[in-house]
Amino acid sequence: MADYLDAFGLVFQGYVLLAIAGGTLLGLIMGALPGLTAAMAIALLLPLTFGMPPVMGIGMLLGTLCGAIAGGSVSATLLNIPGTPSSVATTLDAFPMARKGQAGRALGIAIVASFLGGIFSAVVLCVLAPPIAEFALRFGAPEYFALSIFGLVIIASVAKSLIKGLVAGLIGLLLATVGTDPIAGVTRFTYGNYSLLTGINLLPALIGLFAVSQVLADVVDYFKTEKADTSKTKLDKAAPRWLEVIRSWKVLFSSSVIGTIVGAIPGAGGSIASFLSYDQAKKMSKTPEKFGTGHPEGIVASESSNNSLVGGSLIPMLTLGVPGEAATAVLMGGLMIQGIRPGPMLFAEQGAIIYGIFIAFFVANIFMLMFQWFGIRLFVKVLQIPRKLLMAMILVFCVIGVYAVDSDIFNVYLMLGFGVLGYFLNKYGFGTAPVILGLILGPIAESNLRRALLQSGGDWSVFVMRPISLTFLAVALIFLVFTYWQNTRHKTLLT
Amino acid sequence: MESFSIRGSAAGGSLPPAFFPKAICTLLLVLLSVSLLKLIYATAKHNEGCQEASFSRGSVIPVVSWLVVFLLLVLYAVVLEPLGYVVSTALLVFSVVGTLVMLSPGDESGISAKGIAKLGAFSMIVSLLIFFLFSQGFGIILPTLGVMGV
Amino acid sequence: MKKTMIALSLAVGAAGFTLQSLADSNYPERNIEFIVPWNAGGGADNVVRALQNPVEEVLGTNIVVRNLSGGGGAVGFSRALSAKPDGYVVTIPTNATFTLEGLGNVDFTYTDFEYIARVLVEPYVLAVNSGKGWETLEDLVDHLQENDARLMVGASGVGSSTHVMAVALAEELGVEFDVVPYDSGANAVTAAMGGHIDAVVLNPSEVVSGIESGRLTALVTTGDERSGAISQAPTMLEEGYDFSVSQWRGVAAPKGISQEVEDRWVEAIQSAVESPEFQRAAEMMGSDIMPLYGDELDEFVERTARLMIDEAAKLRQ
């Protein structure tokens, strides 16, 4: 308790609050721009934190992390550009809603869901961090494999047609095999290109499949619907939609739980959390056919989940000293440079600092809400920019963002290739989200399948002999059957 | 539609020392393409004569503009490093917007000298603004021409 | 921040007019680009960012850290090598510089670099899951040899220097390891803590918190001396094996930089390693500050490179 009081003292100082606010704002801006990730934003601010007291420095970086994830959903909603991989699921419903002229509503829902998801994970972080970390340790190769299969099944529910979705997913899986294979070190499909040695970079694929393909589609549309002058586009009221989010509290709660837990499992491919939640929400829904057309519950699921992911990902970092993904790895580097070594001893030895970090995380979420609350009216103005100018600017941002990932022009070509692929996938109803899922989950599935078999000496029964793995596989099977049933029932109802 | 089968077979044809995950992937892809082709065949038959073959001028323009915009992007990627960011971006913005304006028949903002000058200025300003945002604000190094820092 | 921005724009502007002939005696006259061939947040990246401030102070210019993370280091290193050897582009050499060559994935060799300094050294650690009951290296080796058993050992990525080192260690100890490569050191540690694999071969920074929590036991380290971060574990030399290799991180530039430039850098590193700020960071990262310059460094590089390249080449088949 005394530690908590000390911690409050550490956080509630003018400069500390200012630092957190600044970090959150920068995160929001960078997160909204395609190609700029949370990890980059944190790395950018890292040198500034050296001279600061630990809680102030870490608070600023935490703010950046929260802001970047939330910022990603703004561009996902308005322009169909997921600023970060975690906001891919947001595009599924938020963008259609924005296209229907309800951009303000879509953003309003996203903002509230993000905030509540973030706060949920903050509470879990304070209360349940050690047991959750213990649970995460029970994940071995078979469990990761089973989890990734579970994730792949989602493709069936994200796609409009089962077969087309699977084909798109398989394209993603196939593309995921490019690069040095994870176990034997043999290079595959790299054609002597260094840039492909570690596989296809996710960001160029993401931006190509979503943003570039969208602009290409808009170019075609431009001549069909040109006469509508965008500067007079009617905008609905842009404000947070508390009631609408709280009304779907079931989705909110389950998505936050999923986000926190997936975030806490290191290396589980955090960005799938929003898909898992989306899928879950659709399964629970009485009106699953509305998903994908601008359904508020879809936005709530994705957004609450990807922001609760942030708190979840802090759990293994703080309790085990193991960063789960890129952004927390940079954050952990920041902690160490500050002279704090994350891990079990941190709780015992530096209670005030760790509780300070918890409180700073709450504060960061509150700032995130405030900035978005004020910003929402500005964000939607983007849609009033004349479309021809907006398209050109989006293209510039895409190219530069992707170039900035590794300062590698090859990634830009890759993005353009994915743009064309994405355009045709969308045009013929395959969808691009399954490709991304395949790309994210492919390496996890393959490497853990092979790791598991390596460990079991080639015995396939490991996948069904272990409880967690068995559960995932069984539920995946049930979901697959359920989705099929849901689809066919829906079809028969229509005819 | 063609592009899928080409992609699949091209990638499958060059399989290096094969591992089973890859094999499964390729196999499944082929299998699904087959069932897919069937599906398309069925739907094509179903819709026959409904929407096909309407190659009027109106439907050509979007395709042309699509190609032009895409080619401009490729060109942009090619010149980005040698020409530097600011110059090539200004050119890209200018030409993309220019293309859209020129190809759309009834756009009243038209092709006046004033319009072109305005667009040129806009391209330059956007390009410079983004440049400063990224290089100064985000500490990201962009390719430069090496003249006057741009 | 603002100051940096102004300085940056001035420096970039000045860059256009620089005359090479004047450059070396006044070095540095503009920003220096520090290429980190891995992602932000990795071990190498942390080192560079911790060095950044103290080195900037001595050199009186900005260091721009640039993460070029393709190909397990291949993209960044070859990009650094393609730069003009004027000292405005430097990179961070580690054992990976050598293993990449040994694996045959790149077309540069370790001799293409001019090595300016070695800054930090960290040994490789063999740490086992504490639940397995092995307290010493002898326990482990006896157990494996008597039962003709194999040890499941995690490493941080296929073809990484920890992977190479795990293979080399098994050979030296005369036992059989099944090396399981993970995507990152963090994932390997998690698997070892959870008991899914028996052991890991990694660098101290990655296993320290696992050891502190009692889930992992460090059996042996591979350095010349005991590691500051895991001082309880003996070295291979102490255990009676003639085996000493360490991971190291330093500064290198493409071959052909002038002596003036190299001297300036050595001066900067010498002062940086004295700064308390850097020392604290190094301690937290579990590394030992062991600077080395000039001929001694070249000798060290030669010896380490030969060993890592040979061992890595064995993985190629």
TrEMBL record, chain A:
Keywords, comma-separated and alphabetical: Membrane, Transmembrane, Transmembrane helix
The keyword Membrane is annotated on this UniProt entry: yes
Keyword Transmembrane recorded: yes
Superkingdom of the organism of origin: Bacteria
Entry-linked InterPro entries: DUF112_TM (IPR002823)
Record-linked Pfam families: TctA
Protein name per Swiss-Prot or TrEMBL: C4-dicarboxylate ABC transporter permease
Phylogenetic classification of the source organism: Bacteria, Pseudomonadati, Pseudomonadota, Gammaproteobacteria, Oceanospirillales
PANTHER family: TRICARBOXYLIC TRANSPORT PROTEIN
Residues annotated as transmembrane: 15-46, 106-129, 141-159, 196-217, 251-276, 352-376, 388-405, 425-442, 463-485
Ranges of residues in domain DUF112: 17-437
TrEMBL record, chain C:
Keyword field: Signal
Domain of life: Bacteria
Signal sequence bounds: 1-23
Transport as UniProt keyword: no
SUPFAM superfamilies (UniProt xref): Periplasmic binding protein-like II
PANTHER family: BLR1237 PROTEIN, TRICARBOXYLATE-BINDING PROTEIN
Family: Belongs to the UPF0065 (bug) family.
Annotated protein name in UniProt: Tripartite tricarboxylate transporter substrate binding protein
